[in-house]
Amino acid sequence: MDYSKIKLIVTDMDGTLLHSDYTLNKEFFTIYEKLKKLDIKFVVASGRQYESLLGVFESIKDEIYFIAENGGNVVYQGKHIFVHELDQHVINEVVQLIRPLPNTQMLLCGIKSAYIEEGFSEFEKQIAPYYPKRKIIPSFQESINDQIVKIAIYNTVGSEENILPCVEHLSENFQVVVSGKFWLDISVKNADKGFALKEVQEILKISKEETMAFGDFLNDIGMMNECNFSYAMKNAHPKLYEISKFKTDSNDEDGVLKILKEVIAQRER
Description:
Blueprint: E1 8-11, H1 13-17, H2 27-37, E2 41-45, H3 50-57, E3 65-68, E4 73-76, E5 79-83, H4 88-98, E6 104-110, E7 114-117, H5 121-127, E8 134-137, E9 148-155, H6 159-162, H7 164-167, E10 174-178, E11 183-188, H8 193-204, E12 211-215, H9 221-224, E13 229-233, H10 238-243, E14 246-248, H11 255-267
Parallel strand pairs: 1-2, 1-12, 2-3, 7-8, 12-13, 13-14
Antiparallel strand pairs: 3-4, 4-5, 6-7, 6-9, 9-11, 10-11
Helix pairs in contact: 2-11
């Protein structure tokens, strides 16, 4: 494998860079410093809230790009450089579609905070690792003083089977993506990891041919299509595994770090 052209590396978090217990191998930061010396830029792309990502990358927060909320919020050096906002009428429509579904809960993801409705204390505990900034509000159908970039919907049985059929018709005008076994996200049409990665590539003047990406689920498909070096984790969704050009070990086997070490070893020769 010829890694000589690589100038930009982007990775998903959960199921990809992070272990299944949500921890990051501390060796990552040693590897990152070597990438930096090789002038290879690093981007984190996740469905998580920006503040959640900061908690992991605090020591290098001003050096890397953050694609948060599946592309709804792109941040560099603390500045929101791209924000893709949903209209209130869309939120109202989705709320009406989701309310009747059993075993299903939702939250609104904004720039200032994430929002959940009153009466869902157990759900709040569950989302805490992904959304450290969150507020409880009386109703989703009331106006919120924030820019809502994503509607995240959770089903305790499975999102692909139990949420997607009810909202799939919205995909003509919006991004509707299964982002995890139990999660589905809705955002504006040009808010996904692929669109966000293109925006970062344009800022950095780095091409698709110079980009490497790692992912594990369907919300990573967009960014896989925007790079020549697309790697699916061994634990990836079958559809992502199929469209990715290359494969690596699972997240718990540090598959991302293994490939990054190969890049560094080849470039340092």
